[in-house]
Amino acid sequence: MRSEKEKSRGSSLSDMLKSWEFTIFALLIAVFILNLILSPDLFRIANLFDATLTFTEKSILTLPMTLLIISGVIDISIASISAMSGVILGVCYKAGMAIGYAVVIGLAVGLAAGILNGLIITRLKIPSIVVTLAMMLFYRGIGYVLLGDTAVRDLPERFGLLGGAYSVTSIPIQFMIFIILAVIFGLVLHRTRFGRLIYIVGNNENTARYSGIPVDNIRLILCGVTGLIAGLSGVLLTSRIGSARPDIALGNEMAVITICLLGGVYIFGGKGSIIGVVIAALMIGYVRYGLSILNVQEQVIRIFTGGLLIIALLIPTIAARLKTSARYPEGGV
Amino acid sequence: MNNERYRGTLKNLIRRREFGIFIIIIVVMVLVGLRNPTFFTSDNWKDMLMYVSILAFISIGQMMTIVTGGIDLSVGSVVALSGMSVGIIMRDNPALPPLVLILLGTIFGLGCGIINGLLIGKGKVHPLITTLATMSIYRGLVVVVSRSRWVVYGDITKGFRLIARGNILGINNLMFVAIIIAGASYYFLNHTRKGREIFAYGDHQDAAKFVGINSTRINILVYALSGMLAGFGGVLWVSRVHTAQANTALGYEMQTIASCVIGGVSIFGGVGSVFGVLLGTLLFGIILNALELIGIVDFWKLSVQGFVILVAVIFDAVLSHRVAEQMRKQRRVFDAE
Fold this sequence. Notes:
The structure holds 2 protein chains of 2 kinds. Chain A is mainly α.
């Protein structure tokens, strides 16, 4: 833990060069340059920001997911929560509710789903991965039960602005939300007592319990926040594509976890930083953007992200082998 | 002494559970039969059992991974990849005998499984995340391999169709195969050294290491077996439904997991039985079939599956916490004596 702190505050150049954040930042620059070679148009600031529209919904989800994984829990039902929130928003609007209230309901649904996950995980002491695996089907199914294979299309234009419009200058509102959330999550994780507790809980659950830290409540709060942001992600996505459908955000959970791990979050908890994850989110976003400019099929892009996830997972093992013979702890998440 | 008693209670629990599933199966059958008499027609049973047969032996592979404390989310994609590859090979070489195709599909599956096993065993990566990644990689490969052209009814040769439709000793091939695989797995898991090592490893990984069980080999073995069975299942799947598409067996991994947890395989590892999984698969198959017969369409399927998994997992967790509590009390009594 201490070494992590020293690293982020360290002033010597060699420390910086060694840090994972720096490596990933260098990768981001490389991706930028490649993208520029592929499509010189990207060089215009407006296009640079436009490109973010395609991945902001995923990026905002990486923030709470980072905190959650650091605390030793994982939630793979997030994409389903997003879809469910979007669908319920659509259904509420169709039933005659004002769009503002429908958005609030959509967010509340996300929060409720997250809290339900958290309650089952912490109160019944079942591994989070198994609970959220079941919930992934359950929440996704609710979307299908409500809408079947139809979609709510006639959402008001005003609502579409949320996902597609620009705020001051040419920065999309979505991207602004991402930046603001990133700052908030970064401050909470790195500058508050609560943030320190998250690391302790993830580092050694038992020690934390014996020290009187409310492990279960911290995880419950994080699950709730993750659900809420998943709801927000669903609302933004629904707004951007202009219709509420049950089959949106498929596979987003994998994309989000990939970004977190690439950003230096340790899958078994206790390690990670917001800045690393933000850089990784931008990097993956622009990689996908570049691939889609090249007209690469969506399925092939998914092969690519799957491969990246495996590489990200292998990094700690390989690093450990290279560094020392020190073994990484094995065990469940 | 203590340990023996523990084992005894555990065995009892598993047996009681299998009996419980059996009762539930009968109750569900009666209820569905009352609601819709077509449930009891032999055509319906044949269709359902053919579906359940493939699910059963892939679930047995899944069970081995769950018993080690892992999970294999890639089985659905492996079914699709093996089915699609074999379908394409058949389309290009209609003269190939079906047995060669079965062998090829099984080898494809084995390859996918070995990749999973190497990543998990040698790379020391978490099984769920690994197979989440390979699930999407293998699924993507289905599209790449097919070049977006599906294998359709007309491409399926007559001999290939017979794999699923034919009979051995008066029993449908698929059921026959499922029974053979179940029997072989039972023997392997309960009466061979490697089989017992799988359970020992899942029960307590550190203890297993101390008695000299090689964790890398165990991991490679179970994921290879799971992949192999999924690859074999993929060939039978295409022979049964006469098509191979990009979304063949999408979400199938969840059905295998549901069958396992219903059948009493503990997600904490170390506990599970082939017979339990067979019963779990049958119950799950009947539930799916019932949903269709009662007229509840596809849209409910996902939620019901998720709900069933959740209930089974919660039941399992509460039960195992209670057993642990009981053990602790017993131990206290022993210590006092």
